[in-house]
Amino acid sequence: MEEEKRKRKRLNEILQPVGYAFIIILAIFTAAVSVRSVKSVQRASNALAYAGFIGTYSQNVAKGEIYGRSQDTVIGLVDEMLRVLSKEENDEQILRIDDRQYQTYMKDIERKWKQMKEEIEVVRAGGDTDKLYTISEDINEENHMAVFAAQAYIDTYVKRIRLQLGGTYGVFFVFIGAMFLMGQRNRLLERRADKYKSIAYYDPYTGIYNRSAGERELNRYRKNPYEGLITVFVFDLNNLKLTNDEYGHQEGDKLITSFAKIADVTARSYGFICRYGGDEFIAIFKDCEKNKAERFVAQLKKNVSIYNDRCKNPWQKISFSYGYSVAKGNFTTIDDIMKRADEEMYERKMAMKKNAKGKDASAGADDRSLFVQPEESTDNKG
Fold first, then answer.
1. Which CATH superfamily does the domain covering 211-355 fall into?
2. pLDDT digits (tens, 9 = 90+) for 317-326
């Protein structure tokens, strides 16, 4: 299970940067397509506007010339508009409208515009104005038809741009959605892995770390010895077998569960603790000198004493033996430190039995509602 989790983690470490890079590239591409689409629509709008101006300007030119007002400036504008609209390639500002009907109308307009400019010279020389007016009307009519054709082409063109842009956005958001779903799936797998991990490394009766977690912690120090101080504690409940025999395993389980929760709460700010066996517990603290270790023991005794004061029956009270050893992890192995702690715990236990008092390590729990008792269990060794 751990190996599978590591493989998934390595795969995620590879895929996530690739996914993020792809998102960035896709976002840049989408932005570029958006800018290009906006420019294309603007160019199409300019083309339609130019086409519309030609009809209006041609009539203004005819009227001005008929009334004797030179329209050379406007004539130059119309010439430029026709030049741009008749280009074979797209202009930076004007879209080429590749519609056959529109191009036919524009060629007719160009031809008639040339005729109109010739008639302007005739009018300026004092000739008749009727033909100039007629040509301008023809250009205006042709221009209306050209505008309608241009509008139809541009509507189709803009629709195509919208589809392309929508497709690009679609791909972008689908990929984002896929990344999101992948992330959700990974989180689900991690939650499942954590659930299995909880089952594998937590004791179901006491709710604290179990022996597997303890061995995992010890292996870390075996593989990578810690250079600072390491303190290992070994705890063992007293008289558990007597409690099991006299009052039943359920009462014995209550002692184990209660001590486990008290010890776990007390050790929370110090370091690691686990249930290593039936009624045996170990704790491993880093950077813990002897004075700090003694403070922890005193706090644990005090918490157990508080718990015991609340017990109505003597057999419900917790009595435990302990031993600990402090050493530098880079000068001795974690197993040797634990062995010395276990030996000290055993010596203290024998001394307590010899004195037949059982008071050396009586102590009890804090004021928190942490001591939920299991309804049924037989997982203790006495």
1. Reverse transcriptase/Diguanylate cyclase domain (3.30.70.270)
2. 999 999 999 9
What DSSP element (H or E) covers 290?
helix 290-309
Q: What are phi and psi of 237, to 5 degrees?
A: -75, 145
In this structure, what DSSP letter does residue 301 have? H
**Backbone angles phi and psi of 380, in degrees to 5:** -145, 160
Interior angle at CA 9, CA 14 and CA 11, nearest 5:
35
Give the SS3 label for residue 321.
strand
Q: What is the DSSP string of 219-274?
A: HHHHHS--SSEEEEEEEEESSHHHHHHHH-HHHHHHHHHHHHHHHHHHHTTT-EEE
Cα separation, 173 vs 157, whole angstroms: 24
**pTM, whole model, 2 decimals?**
0.49
| pLDDT tens digits, 27-65 | 665 555 555 555 666 667 777 777 778 888 888 888 888
* Burial readout 341-375 (b: 16 or more C-beta within 10 A, e: otherwise): bbebbeebbeebeeeeeeebbbbbbbeeeebeeee
pLDDT at 219: 93
pLDDT average, residue stretch 324-347: 90
